[in-house]
Structures are given as structure tokens and as C-alpha cells.
Design a protein that fits this description.
Length: 113
Amino acid sequence: QVQLVESGGGLVQPGGSLRLSCSVSGSIFRVYAWAWYRQAPGKQRELVASITSGTTNYVDSVKGRFTISRDSVKRTVYLQMNSLKPEDTAVYYCNKDPPFNIWGQGTQVTVSS
């Protein structure tokens, strides 16, 4: 069974940066496209960024600020987040795109002064 373990969240001031990591267990990593999702309080979970072996896609609100990458040897997906805004505050999750029915615990990102 796949396990997804997110890390790297925290409290950061507006304009700051964070780098999230997601470790994926098992031998499935190379097969799928992977993505980062987020869920803010009172809102539905949304797809933020996705990556296949050759292409990346981003929701409009993070274009130019976030960068998704993957390391197939380490079976890890990353999300570099720059110029963070208060509206980026959410729990961030990784999963394949489209997602499995199971999710990791997520990592909390709070952008506040």
C-alpha cells in the first residue's frame, strides 16, 4: 500500500519561502504524474501544481511563485514556494494526479506577520 509523507511546512512571514517535500513509498513513483494539493480552512481541497516526467502545470494563483519538481531516485516530490502570501495558508498534501483515495497527514503552511 502506498504511503505519502509530507514535510517542510511552518510559519513564515508574507514574502517568505518554504520548500515542501513528499516521500512516496513503494515502486509506483515512476508510473504516475504527481501533484501538490492544499486545503484552506472552510474550503475544498484544490490542486496547486502537478508534474509528469516532462511537464508541469500550476493553478493560476501560484504561477511564477511556486515550482514543483520530482526526484525519481529518492521517490520524492518537492514544492518550492516563494513570495508567499497569507492566502497560501493551508494544509498541503501530495498525491498522484488524479489522486488516490488515501492521503498523507499533510503539512501545515501558515503565512502571517
